[in-house]
Structures are given as C-alpha cells and as structure tokens.
Fold each of these.
Amino acid sequence: MTTLLLVRHGQTVWHEGNRYAGSSDVPLTDVGHEQAQALARWAATARLDAVWSSTLQRAIDTAAPAAEAAGLELRTDARLVEVAFGKGEGLTRSEMGVVFPDAVDAFLRSPASVPLPCGERGYDAIARAAAAFREICAQQPDGRVLVVAHSTLLRLVLCALLGIDPESYRQVFPNLRNATVTTLDLADDGAAALDSYNVPITA
C-alpha cells in the first residue's frame, strides 16, 4: 500500500477570474510561491519517500521547495499535466459561453467524455494519469509520496480510482484549493481508499 499525498499547485496568474489554464504554462503568483514555501515547511517533517510533479512550471515551482526540504530529488512526469482545454485555454467559463456556447454546455454536462473544442477528453487524461500513479506506487511500495499536479486532473483520477463516475467529479470533489493535501492509499491490486481531501497545510 502506497500513500499518495496529492497537492494542487500554488496560485497562478490566471487564478483571478478562474481562467482555464490546462496545458498552458502559466506562472505562480507571489501568493503561489508563498504557498510553495508553506508546502516545503510541511514536507520537511512529512516523512516523504519521493516527490513527483507534473512537468508544467507551476507544478514544478510548487514541488521543488518541498523536495529540497525533504532532502529528495524532484521527479517529473508529463502524464501528470493538467487536462488540455483546447480553445478554452485562458478563457473564463463566461467567455467560453460567448465564443462557443453549445460546446461549453456539452462539456459542462459531460466533462469526462466531452472535451472543449480541440481539447482533451477527461477519460484520456484519466488513463495517462492513473498509469503514472500506478508506476509511482510500484516504485515506492509502502512509501509516502508527494504528487504535485492539477485540480481537474486530480479530481477526475480520484473518481476513477475510487469507483465514482468521473462525469460527476465537480459535484463529488468540488473546489480543490491550491496547496492543500489530499491523502489517497493505493494498493498493488488497484484498491484505493481516500483518507482525507483538501486539507490545509499545517507546518
């Protein structure tokens, strides 16, 4: 059984207005960097065995101080990047409703199976990220692993691993805040147990 400590990256420059970042490589704000330092203080005593991150810079900049504080090498995996939102990148939901209203309505009704225009299906993102999770766990059996990734990706994968319909991820796992910790136990046979969700860091 591997314990995965799942963290959404720190606040980015597109946080205000809730712009869809997806695969766009947007930087952290000053607040985001402060959140990364708070995560590092937590990581120093969290008994971590490994630290993994998405290859997007906002995730790396959140994870790197934690890896350093824990005395570990930061490892990255492109399969942990956020769902690509295609033509929705950089837009708010309201702006998408003006540009492609029918498409955004379909996406909101079925967010795992219907992508935004030129975007990635949620189910495809689940497949790549779940494979990464399984490989991380195989490398760290019985370990404690920090994984810094992204809001939509993490919520979709949580649903898939826990046997919940991913189409309902927004209702089941609303509002994953920046730099909070979600704890998931993942067994060799794929059985998963959610220990906590969206827990603020205390360090």
Note: The chain has a mean pLDDT of 96.
Amino acid sequence: MKKIIALSLNDIRNIFREQILYFMFLVSPILMFLVARLGLPKAGVWYPVLVDYYPLLLLLLTLQVSSGIGFVIASIILDERDEGVLTGIRVMPMATNLFILYRILFSMLVTFLTTLVMLQGTGIIVVEWGSALLVAFLFSLIAPLVLLALPSFSQNKVEGLAFFKAFNLLLLLPAASFFISSKIAYLFALLPLYWTFHFFEAIHQGEPTGLWLGGAVAVHANWITILIRLFRRKVFRR
C-alpha cells in the first residue's frame, strides 16, 4: 500500500509539473463539463435539432475527458522510459505486472469519477444511478487503451502526441454508426466504443441493454489484453 501511495503522489507531482498534462488532467475535464452544462442547452435553443443528439454529444464530450486522462498517464510512462525508470522496474521480481496493474487501475479510477460527474452533473439528460455507474465503468476502460497504446507505438512524447490525435479519431469513429443505415455500420463493432455508445442509447431509449453491455465488456477486455501483451514487449523488452 505504501508503494501505491508513493507512486500516486509521484504521478500527481509529474502531472502538475507540465502544463499540457495539467491541462488534460484538470482543465480539459472542467471545460468539457461547462460545455455540456452551459453550452449545449444554449445551442439547443438556437438550433433545436441538436436536442435529439444530446446523448451522443454528451458521450463525445465525455470521451475527450476519458482519452485525455489516458494520454496523461501515457506521457508519464514515456518520461519514465526516457529517464530509465522502467529499466529498473523490469529487473525487479513481479514489478512489471504490478506496475501495469497500478497504471491501469489508477487511470480507470480517475476516468470513472470524471465520467460519473459528466453524466450526472451536467443535467443534459436524466440517467438512473445504476445505469450511470455502468456507463462510467465502460468509459473508464478507455483510459487503459490509450495509456497502453501510446508508449507501445511512440518513441517519445512528441510522437505520442501525434499518435494520440490519430488514436482519438479512431475512438470517435463508432459515432458514425448512428448515421449509417447500411450493414457497413456493423464494421464499427470491432471497436469498443461502438458497444458503449449503443449501450447508452439503449438506456436512453428504454430498450434492452444486456447485449450491448456484454459486447462492450468483451471487446474492451479483448483489446486491453492485446495491448498489455504489446506494451510488455515494446516497452519492457527493449
């Protein structure tokens, strides 16, 4: 427990040491919250057609918060790799597994809490607490995807930022399935957020959610497992 607390405190110090990390971790979530809380209702008055898309718009804003947190943790890992910290961890018994687990759980906890605030605090739509907790859990699985992928495909923070922009676009793609009526939309089922988005839509429409929830958990778990293996090979076995 002492090691976990020490790591957490060190991560917080690293986050507030760099402006971009501080912005993505704290400022960006606040801005997204204000956009949802204040901006969307005004936009809905000016453009009533947007009201029908409030659920999707809220999800997209929440996605930016979740992926941003993953980017922050990934940037810390890239710094640790450059500073040789990961080399020391690699030679310690069981340290690699504990390191990966800690990073994943830390990012999931922060993302879960911020997602819950976005869902229940903005007042854009009404979501029962039980459903909100499930949606927040699914969104908390986004951060591990980002934090595992960026260090695996990037050599430094500059490359990491460029990769993050492309990866974030990939995360956004399943939103297109709401506007495509053909079977082509099913191709997005390979991406985890396809299931999360439609799970939220089913909640909003009062439809059965079991299939969407099960699919979201399964696809997220599959991609996280693949990325953990890739992360171990690319980051720890250099």
Note: Residues 33 and 39 are 9 Å apart (CA to CA).
Amino acid sequence: MKVNLIMPMILFVLLVLSRMITDIPNFTATIALVMFTGYLIQNRLLSILVILISQIVSDLYLGIYSSMIFVYAAYISIALLSPIIMKKMNTKSVVLSSVISPSIFFIISNFGVWLMGSMYTFNLSGLIACYIAGIPFFDESLISTVLFALTIFSIMKFIPKETKEIILIKK
C-alpha cells in the first residue's frame, strides 16, 4: 500500500494553525478543515489520526479542558459524515455539509460541557440551559464554517488537476 503523506501533512499544519490564529471566538477554519480532511483523505483511519493528533497538539498549547473528548468525538463524526454528504463535490453539497457540521459540533460539544461541567444541573432543564447558553457561539461557528468551506472549495476548483490527483491518499 503506497501512501502519499503530502496532503495529510498540509491538513495537519492547517488544522493546528486554524485553532491558534483567530481574534473572534469560534470563528475559525477548523470545522471546514475537518470536513475536507474527511473528504480528501480516503483512508478513514489516517484522516481521523490527522484530526486527532492536530487537535491534541493544539490543545497542549491552548490548554486542556474537561470536555475535550466530546470535541474530538464531534470532529470524528464530522470527518466520517462529510464525505457522504459531499459525495458529489459541488457548491450545494459543500454548503449542506457546512451547515450540518457545525450543528453536529454544537450538539456533541455542548452535551459534553453539560455532562462534564459543574455550571448546569444534571437534569433536562440543565441540559437545555447549556444548549441555550451555547447559541451565541453557534452563529460564529456556522458562518465561519460556511465561509471557509466555500473558500477551500473555490481554491480546489482552481487547481488544474483531476479529482484522483487531488485526493492523494489511495486505499
């Protein structure tokens, strides 16, 4: 099995940088990059490893927090689901994945905050309060994911290569 590691290395670096270069909370390219990592690296194990290791590296720099496992689970879910949504790579599928992916992140990560934290009561009203408190962060996540995903998609359209050459990881 021959594996070209150029694309995974590029995506790894971009994923680490995406979490560290931002002035607006939750306005990052991370979810869009996770979507495209899942799409561009056909080997699912390798795509998950690239995402997880990049997040661990950036979390070691940014700080460890109790709900990390839920953030990682959200990213893995997005990476596994986005190739199904973007099966036909076009604007419609990219926008659809860009709306679904931050929603998945919101649902899973806020559940983790509720479950692992002490800010909310451990009942349905506490869970609802946690989700309501997270809504102001969701819009930045949604807008940034749509904008960055469309930007990545547009850049890919300008690369004069066949899809088989862009997807560098072979099964």
Note: The mean pLDDT is 89.
